[in-house]
Amino acid sequence: MTDTTSSAYRRLSHHLDKNSDGYGPLRGTLGTARMGMIWLAANLVVTTLLTGTLFVPGISWGLAVGMIVLGTLIGGSVLVLVGNMGTRTGLPTMSLTKGSFGLRGSFLPVAANVVTLMGWSWVQAMLAGVTVNFLVEQATGFSSPVLFSVLCQLLVVCLAIFGHTGIARVEPWLALVILAFMAYIFVAAFLAHGPAEFAAIPQDVEAGWTPVAALDVVIATAISWTVLSAEFNRLARTQAAGMIGSGVGYMLSTVLAMTLGATAIGYVVLDGGEALPFDPTVIVAAFGAPLAVVIFLSVMATNTMVVYGMVASVVNMVPSRRITFLPTAIVLGVISILGSTWLALLDRFTAFLVVIGALFIPVFAIMIVDYYLVRSRHYGRDILRGTGGAYWFTGGVNLAAVLVWVIGAGASLLLTYVVPSPIGATIPTFVLSALLYLAWAAASGRIDRSRHPHVHLLDLPETERTNADR
């Protein structure tokens, strides 16, 4: 590096660490409207849109929309509850797992989270690259989807490097632009074919979709976003701002994006085309550049948050001055850019969602029960320690939480692939995991029945303890 480059690097690194894009809690400053716009932009994304294309014509268009709404309400409730833990404490999602899994036991969900988010970043960069490549190839004849995937992810990494303040500034504007283009596409679709025509699209039984399967996928989508819920809800100034903003923003964006996907693929079917699910070029060919703009901007908005979430997870694993935001962002960013060349992953997207659900539904069930029921909505400053203290359990690991996690993940896979449940796999897995963890806490006398005033972690004294922590 030259002296100028080195100086700029140090200034940026210092700025990010000073503004709490490093280890420990962060005090939020954003109101309800800004939080809502951040979450609105986050899930107005190509993967959510293309998930909607999976359901039609496997199930009817009207039923698909119904399952999208129901699944979003159920999954969004989990997202809001976990996100509120971030607002109350100032900690990101994976750092909060230390309360239930232990200071070292949390390394397991953190590792799973980084791998999952990396997969998300690859998938979204590839879809943006494929879309840009489709337009460029039509205009010039030049085709290189790998090149455009890499370029899209490179831009995302550059945006993510500026941390949460950069995201807070950019996301709301991207949301407004995306919404405008989505409105145009909805109007074009329904002017060409009325709602009754969409509802009358013949169901394709051979596609293998059922209403319950669609519901599971929609809930799994919410679970996949919950890994970032506390990261961004800790930016909220108040609990109301975080819960209302994330709830309305996430639910509105998911319903709009998935319904747009189901409508777009229904439009293709009504025009006599072939319903190829999870292929952006099919619907871009039908709607042209406006839909391509939606896909590209949505990837910029969402993948920036995904890369930031990966970095926050790693930085908050342990208190260490050697693990800081900027170098971690660069390393993970380079990996995400290289991985965006693996286009074959797009063929495994549904299986990818199933794995995310199996891994993280039990984790979030454990987190919610531990924080709201067992710990009486309070984590002490010991959660910021590297060793010892109230969240050390046995050698830094809560073996009970790990066991419940394994049982829950196994049950999810069993109910998905071996003994399909009539009510899907996600809801039974969540209930089973929550009940098992609550039963362990009750049997071991760990439930704290005292009432704690809400105090942000930054406002707690260094020596703060509770009866339950001792």
How does this structure look, described?
The chain is mainly alpha-helical and 470 residues long. The protein has a domain of 324 residues: Hydantoin permease (Orthogonal Bundle). Helix content is 69%, strand content 0%. Helix 3 crosses helix 13. The N and C termini lie far apart (50 Å). 54% of the residues are buried. The C terminus is likely disordered.
At a glance:
This protein is mainly alpha-helical.
Give the SSE map:
Blueprint: H1 3-18, H2 32-43, H3 46-53, H4 61-89, H5 93-96, H6 98-101, H7 107-140, H8 145-160, H9 163-192, H10 195-199, H11 211-226, H12 229-233, H13 239-270, H14 280-287, H15 289-315, H16 325-339, H17 349-374, H18 399-418, H19 426-443
Membrane topology: Multi-pass membrane protein
GO molecular function: cytosine transmembrane transporter activity
Keywords: Membrane, Transmembrane, Transmembrane helix
